[in-house]
Amino acid sequence: MTKLPKPLPKALYEELKSLRAILLHVHLSGGSDVGHVHLYAETQDQTHIYEFNFDTEGWALGGYNGAGDGSAYGDDIVYDLVNNTVTHSDWYMERQDGASESSEKIEVEGCAE
Q1: How would you classify residue 9: left for phi > 0, otherwise alpha for psi between -120 and 50, otherwise beta?
Q2: Is the pTM of this model over 0.90?
Q3: Which pLDDT does position 83 carry in this prediction?
Q4: If pLDDT is split at 50, 70 and 90, which confidence band does 64 have?
Q5: Which three-class secondary structure string do you get for 49-109?
Q6: For residues 19 and 37, what is the distance between their CA atoms, to the nearest angstrom?
Q7: CB neighbours (10 Å) of residue 41?
Q8: What's the rounded Cα separation, in Å, for the pair 92 and 65?
Q9: Neighbours of 62 (CB within 10 A)
Q10: What is d(CA 80, CA 87) in angstroms, rounded to the nearest whole number?
Q11: 49, 43 in Cβ contact below 8 A?
Q12: What is the mean pLDDT of the chain?
């Protein structure tokens, strides 16, 4: 299992600083058999930057395979480049059955009862 949050690679850090980014948001998700990543940087004027010269997807997904039982889960990581802090939270979805259950007769198109 990959330890999160991952250290920020120096090349990515320098690129973010040159873009005048203040926050880097990394959203990882999985649950079936594939890991997904969504990254964006935020500047002081709240411009969102989605493209980087650094291989952000390879860095972010490294070791995050998304394996699971089909229930969605993920990690949200925010690197604060102004205060040099990182915040990490994880989330998951789980099935919750309702208190009531209903049953109806099956209807088949073209068949009269």
Answers
A1: beta
A2: no
A3: 95
A4: low
A5: ECCCCCCHHHHHHCCCCCCCCCCCEEEEEEEECCCCEEEEEEEECCCCCCCCCCCCCCCCC
A6: 21
A7: 23
A8: 15
A9: 13
A10: 8
A11: yes
A12: 81
**C-alpha to C-alpha distance for 30 and 68, rounded to whole angstroms:** 7
Residue range 10-57, pLDDT digits in tens: 999 999 999 899 999 988 887 666 777 888 899 988 888 877 777 777
Phi, psi of 3 (to 5 degrees): -75, 130
Contacts of 20 (CB under 8 A, 6+ apart): 43, 44
What pLDDT does residue 1 have? 46
